[in-house]
Write a structure and sequence with these properties.
The protein has 581 residues and is mainly beta. It has helices spanning 2-11, 70-85, 94-99, 102-105, 107-119, 255-264, 272-282, 319-324; strands at residues 22-27, 34-42, 48-55, 132-138, 141-145, 164-169, 175-179, 184-188, 197-201, 207-211, 217-220, 231-238, 242-252, 291-300, 305-312, 329-334, 340-348, 351-363, 366-369, 379-385, 390-399, 402-411, 416-418, 429-434, 439-445, 456-462, 469-470, 489-496, 502-511, 529-541.
Length: 581
């Protein structure tokens, strides 16, 4: 079989290669308050952090909602019609949600309200639904790490109105991330009106934070903090004298955006903070409201900031460009040599008026592009850097009529960039992590025939090899009974440490649960099932690569780095490490 040849080549390098052995998969404990769990980062000393989403029993406040408005009545009518299409009877009314707390007791009513509120995400008149919570994996348990949320005055527990990106952890357990401010429910009466309106407002759009294992918190407040400003913290490294943290900060507001603020945000027709949020969303295509720059913070052992250094931009804007657009650079990762990597706005090589965002690294006060624009690359970012100054990331260009991403690695010393062969020509692939042994992990699309919503599977790549290897090809075909198909499919490889241990996300099939955490049954009373992401650790072990046949035909051969394992159900997952794609 084809895998015998692969196994022979793998075993030939047993002394140095992670591919010389199969991998043992260990599922880590998931946060029991959420359906979906992910890994964000792992230190070489074993500290693990992550994210969770789809929280059970999400608190919903209906006290302020006018259920007579056409907006919510139409949403209810559409839901009822959708139920009828699948021969399902609707089990709640709007009156029951308003008067009988149905959204907290009836899973269908709860799901309806979550969907309705999500559809009003940009409407300040409605409660805000946060998506992610930070997670610490400690002593075989998963515990929530609160970044900026606070206790609610309207219901028990936190407001759950914040989004969190819990991004990186150092060797001694100091971690970094960033989050949004919690929303506050307030009232506002516009000029010329007599009726108060309920609105939800917050103090800032994003703020970076440093967290110590002992509970100390260091918010990273940007020097330019008008209207709250913006900051993020994406990576942290322990040094001999303290820590280095990299991320992004707001540095100003373009003149045209400031004029928009001056003309619109006078507090008469809407609250100033509501106006700021609206303008930031409106101008996303031109960079948002704020100019933003990659930044490096230096801290001592007590987490006191001793130096803040902006890392620059990949081009010098002309005066009129600076007035009209908000440009940005961002540092996603850093190594122990103070070389940061990420992305930056740069000028397009043959159209001076066009600005694009490309992978870049920051070294000795300079911003250096990584990929060659003349090869068609128009977007991307660098995700990680090893202590050997090897950078990994992804970039996109037109392939087979569509914009596709491709993983790359770049050697600073030789100034060479390589795009390894991935699963197939039009597969998008993303490199997430590299260790000091030259092994790269990430994920790539494996669905050859679907051109839009493609599933992904994790890969392992050794610098110098011809192509990537699907991590699922290094796992068993069957459970211990020798008959049951292996229940995990690795969908995301997030981190690889210097022991060649890999941490990431796998999908497995479990009993389906509703938004209140109850088990879902079909109209016949039978339990339904679904595929969910779970956090995993892959440990290299001595063994042989197996050749797995399709459970239906028993004739299909698993093919390394070419085609998907069709027999398992996968959730399409969004890459989550440090900056969301």
């Amino acid at each position: 079989m084809k895998y015998k040849l692969l196994a022979a080549s793998i075993l030939a390098t047993i002394s140095t290669s992670a591919l010389s052995a199969t991998y043992k998969l260990t599922e880590l404990e998931s946060y029991d308050g959420a359906k979906k769990n992910y890994i964000s980062d792992v230190s070489n000393s074993g500290h693990i952090i992550g994210l969770a989403e789809n929280l059970y029993n999400f608190p919903i406040d209906v006290s302020y909602i006018n259920f007579e408005l056409d907006l919510i009545k139409t949403a209810y009518s559409n839901t009822k019609a959708n139920y009828e299409e699948i021969n399902k009877e609707i089990t709640f009314t709007l009156d029951e949600i308003k008067n009988e707390n149905a959204a907290a007791l009836n899973p269908d009513a709860h799901a309806f309200m979550l969907s309705f509120l999500a559809s009003q995400a940009n409407n300040p008149d409605y409660q805000k639904i946060g998506r992610f919570v930070g997670i610490n994996y400690l002593n075989s348990s998963a515990q929530e790490q609160v970044l900026f949320d606070i206790s609610s005055v309207d219901y028990d527990g936190l407001t759950r109105s914040v989004n969190n990106l819990y991004n990186a952890v150092s060797e001694d357990g100091v971690s970094v991330g960033w989050g949004t401010a919690p929303y506050d429910k307030t009232t506002f009466t516009a000029d010329g009106e007599t009726e108060e309106e309920t609105q939800f407002v917050r103090d800032f759009i994003s703020r970076g934070i440093i967290l110590s294992p002992s509970g100390a918190e260091v918010p990273l407040i940007p020097e330019f903090s008008e209207h709250g400003g913006i900051s993020t913290a994406n990576d942290i490294v322990k040094t001999n004298s303290g820590y280095v943290v990299v991320g992004q900060v707001s540095t100003g507001i373009p003149a045209d955006r400031q004029k928009n603020i001056d003309d619109s945000c006078d507090g008469k027709d809407e609250l100033v903070s509501v106006c700021i949020e609206r303008l930031n969303i409106t101008h996303q295509r031109s960079g948002g409201l704020f100019d933003k720059r990659a930044v490096m913070w230096t801290l001592d052992d007590n987490l006191n900031i001793t130096k803040t250094q902006e890392l620059g931009l990949g081009f010098t804007p002309e005066d009129d460009e600076s007035e009209s657009f908000a440009y940005s650079s961002n540092a996603i990762a850093v190594n122990g040599k103070d070389i940061a990597v990420g992305y930056s706005s740069v000028r397009y090589y043959d159209r001076a008026s066009t600005i694009i965002s490309l992978p870049a690294y920051y070294k000795d006060g300079k911003v250096t592009e990584i990929v060659n624009q003349e090869d068609g690359w128009v977007e991307g970012q660098a995700s990680a850097i090893s202590e050997n100054n090897i950078i990994v990331g992804y970039a996109s260009k037109q392939i087979d009529g569509a914009q596709r991403y491709k993983l790359f690695y770049h050697d600073i010393a030789s100034n060479s960039t390589v795009f390894p062969t991935d699963y197939f020509s039009s597969s998008s692939s993303f490199a997430n992590s590299i260790n000091d042994n030259g092994y790269i992990v990430g994920e790539g699309e494996t669905d050859v025939y679907n051109t839009s919503n493609r599933r992904r599977e994790g890969f392992l790549y050794k610098i110098g090899d011809d192509k990537i290897t699907n991590l699922n090809d290094l796992l068993p075909c069957y459970e211990l009974d020798g008959e049951t198909r292996y229940k995990y499919t690795v969908s995301e490889a997030r981190v690889i440490n210097n022991d060649n241990e890999i941490f990431g996300v796998a999908t497995k099939t479990v009993e389906k649960t509703d938004s209140l955490g109850g088990v879902v049954r079909d109209t016949n009373g039978d339990i339904e099932y679904e595929s969910v992401p779970v956090p995993i650790k892959l440990t290299p072990i001595n063994g042989e690569v197996e050749s797995c046949s399709d459970p239906a035909t028993e004739t299909y051969e698993r093919q390394s780095a070419s085609f998907p394992w069709y027999t398992l159900l996968l959730l399409p997952l969004v890459g989550l490490r440090r900056v969301f794609r």
